[in-house]
């Protein structure tokens, strides 16, 4: 209850002072003598209000309800932390609650049915998962269960990057190994995928279709599709071993073939924030705090990954998600600020 009430208050303060880079937190302190929970709210507000954080902390504590039966004591610690100490009776009573109802203990209606999407893992379907993907799988699935137990309507989604140069290179790599397994001369693509698993995928392809792609030419799209399906099955099986499942597997190809990427181009042009330079179409993301403007369409007509990401998040908004959480690896971490600048709904926080 303390966390719920404090979190609501802190979120209101954070919205009011959202230009502050430092975030207000309610967290467990590192040292036991500093309490069960501690907040830096007075320290953050001190910079905004230009007041002594100890004075602000005293004001906050003065307005706290006096009948918080679960709190034994509230202390202020220099330079301005507010430390909460839970009562022993409350802690013992919670042990009894856990024993009586272990499955539902801790559930609440904080989310009030808000529709929330968590996109995570989203590994390129060009090979097995690595340890980093496993980390994001554990984090994303844990967050999903936490939000579900807090009353949110949660949907877990895996974004399939099945369009563009990388999947084409992957398909060509599988084809080369496939041809080699039949004893045929094969040309391996420059910058292709050389892992041993590619041979395993080629063997799986033979088990599915035999020599179809030896005797039939011009079937590259079908071969790429089958290679992606084999890789995705490998990914699914690994995730199943971790106990992680997704309600939605969303294909990037759908965005392109359904015209959603082109529609987003027109919507961005209508904002007046796009311009052409050196034959390419750019988005003026510096207006939203980015370090430089970003290319949407290259001079040769190729659409960038950034543009596709914008279309994808537009699609998420259109599907009615009120909150969106993206868990990205290092390659995509820079996109957070940029997607925020192009989102049709500035209230959504990627």
From TrEMBL:
Q: What SUPFAM superfamilies does UniProt report for this protein, alphabetically? A: Arginyl-tRNA synthetase (ArgRS), N-terminal 'additional' domain, Nucleotidylyl transferase
Q: Which Gene3D superfamilies match?
A: Arginyl tRNA synthetase N-terminal domain, HUPs
Pfam family membership, one: tRNA-synt_1d
Q: Top-level EC class, please?
A: ligase
Ranges of residues in domain Arginyl tRNA synthetase N-terminal: 3-86
GO molecular function list: arginine-tRNA ligase activity; ATP binding
Keyword set includes Nucleotide-binding: yes
| Entry GO CC | cytoplasm
State which Enzyme Commission number(s) the record gives: 6.1.1.19
> Key word NADP present in the record?
no
Output the GO biological process annotations, alphabetical, semicolon-separated.
arginyl-tRNA aminoacylation
* InterPro entries membership: Arg-tRNA-ligase, Arg-tRNA-synth_N, Arg-tRNA-synth_N_sf, ArgRS_core, Rossmann-like_a/b/a_fold
Alphabetic keyword roster: Aminoacyl-tRNA synthetase, ATP-binding, Ligase, Nucleotide-binding, Protein biosynthesis
Family from the record: Belongs to the class-I aminoacyl-tRNA synthetase family.
What the entry lists under NCBIfam families is as follows: argS
From the Swiss-Prot or TrEMBL record, give the protein name: Arginine--tRNA ligase
* Species whose genome carries this gene: Candidatus Hakubella thermalkaliphila
């Amino acid at each position: 209850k303390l966390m719920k009430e404090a979190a609501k208050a802190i979120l209101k303060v954070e919205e009011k002072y959202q230009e502050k880079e430092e975030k207000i937190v309610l967290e467990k302190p590192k040292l036991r003598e500093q309490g069960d929970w501690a907040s830096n709210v007075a320290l953050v507000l001190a910079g905004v209000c230009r007041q002594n954080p100890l004075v602000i902390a005293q004001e906050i504590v003065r307005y706290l309800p006096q009948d918080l039966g679960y709190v034994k004591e509230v202390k202020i610690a220099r330079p301005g932390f507010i430390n909460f100490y839970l009562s022993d009776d409350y802690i013992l009573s919670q042990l009894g609650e856990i024993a009586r109802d272990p499955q539902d203990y801790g559930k609440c209606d904080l989310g009030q049915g808000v529709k929330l999407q968590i996109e995570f893992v989203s590994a390129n379907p060009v090979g097995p998962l690595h340890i980093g993907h496993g980390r994001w799988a554990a984090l994303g699935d844990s967050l999903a269960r936490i939000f579900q137990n807090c009353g949110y309507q949660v949907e877990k989604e895996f974004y399939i990057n099945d369009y563009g140069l990388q999947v084409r290179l992957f398909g060509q790599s599988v084809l080369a190994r496939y041809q080699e397994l039949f004893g045929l001369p094969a040309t391996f693509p420059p910058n292709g995928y050389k892992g041993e698993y590619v041979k395993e995928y080629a063997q799986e392809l033979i088990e599915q279709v035999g020599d179809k792609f030896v005797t039939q030419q011009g079937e590259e799209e079908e071969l790429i599709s089958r290679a992606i399906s084999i890789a995705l099955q490998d990914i699914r099986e690994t995730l199943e071993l971790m106990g992680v499942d997704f309600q939605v597997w969303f294909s990037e190809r759908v965005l392109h073939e359904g015209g959603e990427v082109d529609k987003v181009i027109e919507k961005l042009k209508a904002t007046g924030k796009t311009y052409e330079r050196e034959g390419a179409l750019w988005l003026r993301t510096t207006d939203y705090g980015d370090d430089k403007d970003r290319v949407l369409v290259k001079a040769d007509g190729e659409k960038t990954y950034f543009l596709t990401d914008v279309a994808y998040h537009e699609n998420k908004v259109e599907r009615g998600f009120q909150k969106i959480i993206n868990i990205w690896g290092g390659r995509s971490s820079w996109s957070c600020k940029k997607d925020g600048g192009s989102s049709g709904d500035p209230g959504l926080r990627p």
